[in-house]
Amino acid sequence: MMARQQSVDVQACLSSVLAALLFAAACLPAPAAAGVHLSTLPEALAVTASAKPGQVLHAGVDSVTVTWSLKSTEPAGADAAYKDVKVKLCYAPASQKDRGWRKSEDDLSKDKACQFKVTQQAYAAAAGGGGSFTYVVARDVPSGSYHLRAYATDASGTEVAYGQTSPAAAFDVAGITGIHASLKVAAGVFSAFSVVALAFFFVIENRKKNK
């Protein structure tokens, strides 16, 4: 009788432990879903930019026109799943060096190189996937070297193909320093006024001493 009771107690204990383990497993965070990897995407889009290699564009002032289309080498129907095209401004390798916050990652969900949205448009299949957009460089884009990348996305918004201008033929952006031209003028006027005022008081003091 006692042996049977001990067996029941052991089974109850094991059941409790198993239930606790299952509960703990259920509370663990689910593993993060892997993002789309650039290396797995076909480079199916031809992308060009109006800015020449080394050309300097001023943030908030100058613009660049980006043009994209499906490469003629792509087989018929290759773009059947394309729904949108989104274009981004990306740091070129020269502006990523020693800057981890601008680093390129193959996993697009972790990529920090292409931080600036240029445009997103419906994919024009009837026009051979062609499109263009003139982008005025945003005021918050910092100084650096850049290139442009376009992604074709499917109905769920997932990247399924891409194309880009050559990172080696990047153009430059001169960012806004944060000191407005009018402030510089005001500072210059104030400095000049200070010099004049100092000279005036110097003359007054000398006259008082000579009386």
UniProtKB/TrEMBL annotation:
What protein name is recorded for this chain?
High-affinity nitrate transporter
What family does the entry list? Belongs to the NAR2 family.
The protein's matches in PROSITE patterns, at most eight in alphabetical order, are given as: PROKAR_LIPOPROTEIN
Looking at the keywords, is Signal present?
yes
What keywords were assigned to this record?
Answer: Cell membrane, Membrane, Nitrate assimilation, Signal, Transmembrane, Transmembrane helix
Q: Name one GO cellular component term.
A: plasma membrane
| Any GO BP annotation | response to nitrate
Lineage at the top is:
Eukaryota, Viridiplantae, Streptophyta, Embryophyta, Tracheophyta
User: Per its database record, what is this protein's job?
Assistant: Involved in nitrate transport.
Q: Which residues form the signal peptide?
A: 1-34
Q: Which residues cross the membrane?
A: 185-204
Among InterPro entries, the record links this protein to: Transptr_NO3_Nar2
